[in-house]
Amino acid sequence: MKERKAGRDGPSVLRFKARLFRHPKTAKASSPGTLLLDVPDVVSKRARSSGMTTVEGTINGHPFRATLEPNTSAGHWLPVNKAMRQGADADVGDTVQLAILEPEPEPIMPGDLRVALTASDKAKTLWKDLTPIGRTDWIRWIVSAKQPETRARRITRTVEQLSEGKRRPCCVNIYEFMMARIPTNVSRRKSSDE
């Protein structure tokens, strides 16, 4: 497994290869359904959870956000759904290349967003109820604005949408965020076995 430390504003990238397999309970099924791959222990430990935890990364260059699940050997495996398989051009038995972003601490709420949330009790209450990844998506959407006017509009829209009970921003592009932090020197073709 290789690790690349990201720039000062991003997480480490954990790279490894793994073989896709069927869940032991569904190994005799004719349809592949969701496949799995074992995650190396070092990645499992950095997931900061012994239970289920969400990770972001690429599989054969295809971006994904998925949940690591505890496996039967005190580690984790990663379910690989149909969209991930198709994006990676891989199927059961294939070895794939993965790049997973090490989980980041939750970003600090920007001051302008903090001020804007004080104007709406509903928005502020829902903000506190969001999961860390939910709050991270809102913050990523706001800070990715290139112009101050765009950022101001996004903050206003964030307060409005939270007040309406919306838990995720409509337009955040998590894949663009991931791809900016994971160099794309990985081929999107099937990887050969080592």
Keywords:
194 residues; elongated; 34% helix; 23% strand; single chain; alpha+beta; eight-stranded antiparallel beta sheet
Please describe what this structure looks like.
The protein starts with a strand and ends in a 13-residue tail after the last helix. With 194 residues, the chain is an alpha+beta fold. It contains 7 helices and 8 strands. Strands 1-2-8-5-6-7-4-3 form an 8-stranded antiparallel β-sheet. It has helices spanning 41-46, 82-88, 111-117, 121-129, 132-143, 148-163, 174-181, and strands spanning 2-4, 13-19, 21-22, 35-38, 53-59, 62-70, 76-80, 95-101. The protein is elongated. Helix 4 crosses helix 6.
**Mean pLDDT over the full residue set:** 81
The number of distinct β-strands equals 8
CA radius of gyration: 19 Å
Proportion of residues in extended strands: 15-25%
State the major sheet: 8 strands, antiparallel
What would you say about this model in short?
34% of the residues lie in helices and 23% in strands. It is of the alpha+beta class. It has an eight-stranded antiparallel sheet.
